[in-house]
């Protein structure tokens, strides 16, 4: 039988070829899997060898972050989705004097990294998240304070060697103890610090409450790098807002203040500018009035002292310019004040209940001192003012009082036909002299009051608490004493005109200005001491 050539089908692969292809593919897959296992094993070995979240590694890291010795109640590692750990029940103690109470606590602390950083052996922590951090700063001068902040201790707060990209604190509380056993408490809703590492500037955002006066603080900016050898040389910069400020917390004043501004410089000398608005400012039972302010000042962040380069407070159409400072421990305030062509009613309104008794242009120059805040001591008790003032063209705001003064002015003038006062015109007067305020009482040893036809020289007081006035002095008139009154009193005084009259002048008679709101009056006072 002849040999017949076999022609293979070009579209069909022999069975042996198919089996060879799959065998080669299995070998490649096995080799790849084995390589992957080796790589994973090597990665696990390296990660385990360099695992940064062991307790013995984490504890020193946390002590660097928090600047204290730490005891942890419960600790466990986390692996997915991020490597890290969670610690609970942290107690913060001093690095010395273990017999003293702890300086703080943390309910829960979570630390997270990334697998990429871990496998690449990069010493970076992505997130440190703290819940309910509570810190207690001991009172100045106490043993605990000396233990917490010995000389050179600033380096304890310089930050960790490992970079922490983000440090977050939720629902924290900072208590600053006082020598009298009380405390200033600062609830911290959120604090977010970025780039936290020794030798770096930290960016921050904070949302918290102030202690005294109560108010809402929001701020963002940068701090550092911290200068451990000279803490005051540490750079700071940022912006802030201080809102819903309850002014009644700092004395016998009322109102809700809102302010905002910016700052920059070093911790020991922070230059700051700010604007404020208080729509309902009042002192004691005074009438609420809108008050706007602006300030440019230098703040010592270590002592809390403030040097005010420029302060402007605007009430109505009146601007009060001031400069001075808040210094010492406890803090006292000293301000030099000036008002140029202001309005008396704008200045008086926050101090008096109802309509201010006088209105008109005001010039003032003086010095104000506000003593330290003390429990049970109001603002008016802490306020001391010394100065001189001039109200060159005031008018009385009470209609009945104004009519009485206007009638008196006409009678006091020697030439009635020359009177500038019309039938319904407001009588204009002038008041000036030195004055001081002590314990809520304004007093003057030499106050002059002038109205057309008469001039009075007075001394006495005005009480801001009950708004009563008591002034005594002498009234010099162009006309005789009998013209100072009407009716039967005029008849009785007529025989005394020659005795009360001065040479080439009218009568000079003793008077008193007395009364309270709605009942101020001027009377003859022949009995008052000369």
Description:
The protein is α+β, with helices and mostly antiparallel strands and 530 residues long. It has three domains: 44-211, no CATH class; 248-393, AOC barrel-like, CATH 2.40.350; 398-524, no CATH class. Helix content is 17%, strand content 47%. It has nine helices and 26 strands. The chain has helices spanning 15-49, 55-66, 115-119, 143-148, 344-348, 379-382, 399-412, 488-493, 497-500, and strands spanning 69-78, 84-93, 104-112, 124-125, 127-137, 163-177, 183-196, 202-210, 215-223, 235-246, 253-254, 256-266, 269-283, 289-299, 306-315, 318-327, 332-343, 358-359, 361-370, 383-396, 429-438, 441-451, 454-463, 469-477, 508-515, 521-524. It has a 26-stranded mixed β-sheet that branches. A hairpin with a 2-residue loop joins strand 12 (256-266) and strand 13. The radius of gyration is 40 Å and the shape is elongated. The termini are far apart.
């Amino acid at each position: 039988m002849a040999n017949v050539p076999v022609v293979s089908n070009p579209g069909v692969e022999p069975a042996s070829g198919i089996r060879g292809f799959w065998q080669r593919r299995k070998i490649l897959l096995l080799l790849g899997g084995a390589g992957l296992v080796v790589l994973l094993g090597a990665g696990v070995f390296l990660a385990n060898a360099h695992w940064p979240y062991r307790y013995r590694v984490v504890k020193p890291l946390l002590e660097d972050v928090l600047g204290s010795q730490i005891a942890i109640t419960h600790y466990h590692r986390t692996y997915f989705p991020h490597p890290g750990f969670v610690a609970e029940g942290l107690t913060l103690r001093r690095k010395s004097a273990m017999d003293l109470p702890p300086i703080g606590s943390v309910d829960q602390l979570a630390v997270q990294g990334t697998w990429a950083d871990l496998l690449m052996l990069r010493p970076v922590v992505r997130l440190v998240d703290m819940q309910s951090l509570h810190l207690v700063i001991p009172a100045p001068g106490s043993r605990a304070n000396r233990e917490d902040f010995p000389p050179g201790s600033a380096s304890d707060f310089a930050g960790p060697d490992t970079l922490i990209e983000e440090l977050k604190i939720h629902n924290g509380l900072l208590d600053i103890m006082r020598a009298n056993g009380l405390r200033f408490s600062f609830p911290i809703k959120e604090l977010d610090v970025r780039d936290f590492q020794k030798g770096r500037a930290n960016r921050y955002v904070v949302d918290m409450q102030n202690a005294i006066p109560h108010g809402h603080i929001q701020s963002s900016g940068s701090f550092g790098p911290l200068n451990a050898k000279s803490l005051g040389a540490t750079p700071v910069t940022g912006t802030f807002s201080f809102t819903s400020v309850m002014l009644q917390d700092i004395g016998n004043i009322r109102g809700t203040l809102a302010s905002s501004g910016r700052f920059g410089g070093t911790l020991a000398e922070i230059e700051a500018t700010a604007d404020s608005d208080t729509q309902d400012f009042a002192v004691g039972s005074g009438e609420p009035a809108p008050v706007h302010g602006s300030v440019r000042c230098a703040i010592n962040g270590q002592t809390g002292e403030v040097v005010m380069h420029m302060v402007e407070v605007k009430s109505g159409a009146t601007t009060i310019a001031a400069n001075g400072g808040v210094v010492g421990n406890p803090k006292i305030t000293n301000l030099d004040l000036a008002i140029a062509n202001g309005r008396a009613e704008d200045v008086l309104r926050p101090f008096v209940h109802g309509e201010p008794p006088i209105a008109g242009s005001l010039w003032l120059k003086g010095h104000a001192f506000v003593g330290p805040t003390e429990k049970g001591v109001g603002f008016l008790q802490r306020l001391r003012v010394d100065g001189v003032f001039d109200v060159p063209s005031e008018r009385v705001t009470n209609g009945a009082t104004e009519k009485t003064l206007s009638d008196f002015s006409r009678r006091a003038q020697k030439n009635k036909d020359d009177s500038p006062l019309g039938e319904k015109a407001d009588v204009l007067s002038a008041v000036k002299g030195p004055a001081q305020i002590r314990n809520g009482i304004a007093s003057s040893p030499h106050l002059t009051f002038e109205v057309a036809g008469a001039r009075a020289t007075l001394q006495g007081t005005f009480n801001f608490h009950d708004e009563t006035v008591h002034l005594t002095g002498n009234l010099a008139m162009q006309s005789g004493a009998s013209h100072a009154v009407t009716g039967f009193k005029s008849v009785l005084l007529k025989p005394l005109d020659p005795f009360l009259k001065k040479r080439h002048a009218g009568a000079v008679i003793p008077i008193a200005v007395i009364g309270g709101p709605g009942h101020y009056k001027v009377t003859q006072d022949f009995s008052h001491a000369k």
